[in-house]
Fold each of these.
Amino acid sequence: MAHNRPQHILELSSEQQRRFLDSFDHVYSDIDGVVYSMETNVPNGSQAYKALESAGKQITFVTNNSVRTVNGTVKRLGQANLQVQPHQIWHPAQTLVYYLQSIKFDGLIYTMASPQFKTVLRNAGYQLIDGPNHFIEDTYEDLLLHIFDKQPVKAVVIDLDFNMTATKLLRAQFYLRQPDCLFLIGATDRLLPIGKGIKLIGPGNFASILVEASGKEATVMGKPGRVLGDMLNRKHNVSDPSRVLMIGDMLAQDVHFGQLCGFQTLLVLSGGCTLDQLHAETCPQHLPNYYADSVADFIQLFANVATKAHF
Ligand SMILES: [Mg+2]
């Protein structure tokens, strides 16, 4: 898709605003940085989703965050005044189960992930191991004892793990030496924005270490993975991806994901990306079609189009 510089949705002409609102049936929306950031709700965000819903748009929340359970996310969205059904929420652990089932995977999985992520896999019947959770003495003997084991691991999974350690990565590296061991990545976020100007090292950076060390192609379950896009489109019977609008606050995850899948993309500046960062972006795959200060701009957009319709 040829890309011009992204346009602010409220700076489009009235005709373009109307055409934009008519141009999609499905909304795939990120959550963190779009609906809320940590404990702070994006002002008027819920009204924007309600306006989209009233206009007949089907809304699905697509997050890279598997640390919060689906029910936990439904509850948190409720606190942001949004009543959402569990089936409207997708995170990488669910995509992973879908993927493993689709390839009829049967084997032991080594996981570096949160307890919530592992629970989703266990509930789907998969057998997991993790660790080591052992403090290594400063000797190679002790290190090797804890990273080198002979368990028949057939897949290594990495997502956000608050207890990530070098020894876990080293153990994963050993498993990945086996040619038939799959390498599966959940969230790809290299940095996790957790507040104004504060970004933590994200799972994507740890995954990159393993990509480099193993020389293996990884399959990505979260955004911007194609597996996720295919799964969502199948689930929602999307035959024309250009009639999907992907809304998100991250260029490398949300916008890139949307572009890979042929969706329209809208960046909101309420989360992990500033206007200066958007202007400085040079990678064509990371440039959205549109941007907005926040999802709340949809309220004004619908009002503009409604007013215009009276003339
Ligand atoms: Mg986000």
Amino acid sequence: MTDRARSALPPGVLSMHVLPAEHHDHDWDAIIVPREVKERLLAQALLVLQHGRQLSMLAGLPHGLIVLAGPPGTGKTTMARGLAQVAALALARQGATALLEINPHAFPSDMLGESQRNVTRLLTETVPEIAARRPFTVVLIDEVESFAVRRSAASFEANPVDVHRATDAVLLGIDEIAKTLPSVLFVTTTNFIEGVDEAFLSRADLVMRFALPDQETIARILEHALGELAVQWPALLPLTKNEARLSELAALCEGWDGRRIRKLVLAGLAQRLDVARDPAKLTWTDLLSAARKKGGVEWAGGQALTSREMFPDVAKDLMHDHDHGHDHGHGPHGHTHTHQHDTDSRSGS
Ligand SMILES: Nc1ncnc2c1ncn2[C@@H]1O[C@H](COP(=O)(O)OP(=O)(O)O)[C@@H](O)[C@H]1O
Ligand SMILES: [Mg+2]
């Protein structure tokens, strides 16, 4: 369950979950990467969460920092969330894991010194307070390039001194947490690793580079996406078993990212009105045609039908005439559409 219901979230915190939790398995399962990739990532996380205290005695101590880098839509954020759940499953017997999602855009500020203060508050107050409540803590910082801005590239920023100070505060905070709260794990993602500060990257225990999926992976993503549709519309289950068609479709998606590949299935459903209204009617023709159009629309075809030509038989009592969302029925101007109406009825009563 989320903590959001119980208390207001601290500034800069997007969400907070206590894991493992039911319904949090799908993120990890949705991302299709080789087995070794997932195992390496999980091993890195468990090493810090479980043995951080002992390892913090080493001269080369872990910083509890993982960086997932790569093009947009390659599964980094989903994988980071999934990792928190799977690590929490592994550690469940030893206690709960808090997952804290940070909004990196909450920190840059126009006010001089404010970014630095915000970062410092997050890393010296918020994270330690939350880490004190549960045995394990995972902090997810998405788009970390706006949190740990590369100082060597910040010289043209509006306020380079402030950017420098904020990044300095991030490094100080990470170093301090590595020493005093060694079972806190930071999982960060970036679409633009060139924008992430070098000293931040050098603290990472693991930098994992994501790439666009190859053709076999594309086929597996399509299979997974169709499988999810088949849960809702079981008639579609045979689609997931047709290897020849899956690879034919995958070949058309070469160079696409995972997000776009999943959206292709939706575009397939929206090729024909008939299918949009009854997804069980989806065919390979729809999917292949959506892929050939690259998920977009062909600007072609005859004259479009009018609304009533398309839907001639919608009964009169289903029409919401004059209902524009105002609380009509009160006051003298029950059916007017102007905002004047509201002021009128208030002053007139
Ligand atoms: N390798 C992959 N396997 C399966 N789905 C993927 C893969 N990569 C991306 N996706 C899907 O694409 C969408 C975007 O993923 P996301 O984690 O937000 O990517 P990123 O953070 O890298 O931009 C999600 O629905 C995810 O399931
Ligand atoms: Mg992302």
